[in-house]
Amino acid sequence: MTTTQQELHPAVVKFLSNSPKKMLINGEFVASKSGKTFDTINPATGEVIAKVYEADKEDIDAAVKAARTAFEGEWKKVTPKDREKLLNRLADLIEKNAAEFAQLETLDNGKPINESTFADVPLSVDNFRYFAGWANKIHGETLPVSNGNYFAYTLREPVGVVGQIIPWNFPLLMAAWKIAAAVAMGNCVVLKPAEQTPLTALRLGELIIEAGFPKGVINICPGFGETAGAALSSHMDVDKVAFTGEYITGRKIIQASTGNLKRVSLELGGKSPNVVFTDGDLDAALSGCIGSVFFNQGQVCCAGTRLFVEKKIYDDFVGKLSDRVKGIKLGAGLDPSTQMGPLVSEEQLKRVTGYLDIGKKEGANPLAGGNRAKGEHLDKGYFVEPTVFANVNNKMRIAQEEIFGPVVSAIPFNDVNDAVFQGNETTYGLAAGVWTKDIKKAHSVAKALKAGTVWINCYNVFDPCAPFGGFKQSGFGREGGIHTLELYTQVKTVWVNLS
Ligand code: NAI
Ligand code: MG
């Protein structure tokens, strides 16, 4: 720890003091059945923060059994109003412990404390409150049937036991996205946090008990993908799996789901085009581009990593962008003056620096950055320089493959058609940005881009009511808003003979 870092919150110290951290199964914190543990690492220093019990197949079995028992028993008796109350209570408890959550998230993931304080934690709270509100507002319909003397209606019922597998880039927020909607709709959950960042989900588990959820409704089992994740996604008594992560893992999830044909929803990242037209507010576009690429060290599924700039202004815009990017202050996330922290893990550092080499070999020109970051307080952590590649064409690997780091590939375009064509020339379709003052152009480009979210003259804006998810190989299913409820309910039609 460097001297510029603030003291750890007493609650964080207390939370970390009972290591190895246990997993939440059936309302209790328990060790793994095998006794095995793994280390969770502070990416700013490479030091071990805590040991964590490692869930494997037997633990997942126990968690699924607990969820099934709760689903068929106690949880059925809890009214929609009481589900709402429980979720709101959980939101209140997170809010009450917000400073602790922010610090724990920054320790485990590396992100700047300002981001965990002003984005991750409050968005998680909002998400629980938003879906709490849906608990008693989703209902069936009566049906205007024509074939005889029948009364027919539908019921919206929960799907059952839901397995949820989340990544490490927004550990608490992804847990909130997944758990809130499922539980609001009356499902029971087994959540597997990412092995890189299990801590805030486990702290959330403590608050789940404090909020008064019946045992087994929410189970939280940290472990590795190939073991715990695979066990959950192939489990014959799991009715649905919701996944966020890499597209390669998404394919494995689908394959694993075939045993009992469980429902699947996938959010798989992207290579999002961010399109800047000459007639845009270019100062705003510049700031928007920086936010779109370097927020969370670029470890964001919807990051605007393919920056398309109209040819006339390309050199000027990309030059200004690199000047600004060179000024981004790197450091440990706990230091409040840090603007960009380390990547989450050594593995991610290798992946990103690998792409920096690939980009240079492909002939791209690193106008800013391009290397692992060096410096007294950086050498032990997983820091890379924020990087702007110019001279990129859309066929290069750095323009087509998800790097998941602070790297932007700047590509010129000629006109609207060219921007749309190149923008859509990708296997992904998660998000896109458009910068122009021309209202007609803005909306027609938004319509033509194949992406689940399009931001016009803004980027990375989120709200729990806004659906988020992919076109093409970015996945399917929407999280956020009313569309999420479709993932976590099923429709039953009931016919009554009136004759
Ligand atoms: P990953 O997809 O392997 O991991 C995400 C989650 O899936 C983790 O909880 C992991 O334990 C689990 N998992 C891994 N293999 C599994 C399997 N066979 N069965 C079930 N669950 C499994 O992603 P990883 O390896 O952490 O990162 C690699 C790349 O994936 C990143 O560089 C980035 O490009 C992409 N990624 C995309 C994310 C997004 O938000 N869409 C989030 C994280 C990573
Ligand atoms: Mg992986």
Can you walk through the features of this model?
With 499 residues, the protein is α/β, with parallel strands linked by helices. It folds into two domains: 3-268 and 476-492, Aldehyde Dehydrogenase, Chain A, domain 1 (3-Layer(aba) Sandwich), CATH 3.40.605.10; 273-463, Aldehyde Dehydrogenase, Chain A, domain 2 (3-Layer(aba) Sandwich). The chain has 17 helices and 20 strands. It has helices at residues 10-17, 57-72, 74-77, 80-96, 98-109, 113-134, 171-184, 199-211, 225-234, 247-257, 282-294, 311-326, 346-361, 397-400, 416-424, 439-448, 483-487; strands at residues 23-25, 28-30, 37-42, 47-53, 142-143, 150-158, 161-165, 188-192, 218-220, 240-244, 263-267, 273-276, 306-310, 365-368, 387-390, 407-413, 431-435, 453-456, 475-476, 489-497. A seven-stranded mixed β-sheet has the order 14-15-16-13-12-17-18, with helices on both faces. Bound molecules: 1,4-dihydronicotinamide adenine dinucleotide and magnesium ion. Residues 225, 246, 249 line the site of magnesium ion (MG). 1,4-dihydronicotinamide adenine dinucleotide binds next to α9, α10 and α13.
Domain tally: 2
Largest sheet: 7 strands, mixed
Proportion of residues in helical segments: 40-55%
Bound molecules: 1,4-dihydronicotinamide adenine dinucleotide, magnesium ion
The CATH topology of the largest domain turns out to be: Aldehyde Dehydrogenase, Chain A, domain 1
The average pLDDT is 97
Q: Give the radius of gyration.
A: 23 Å
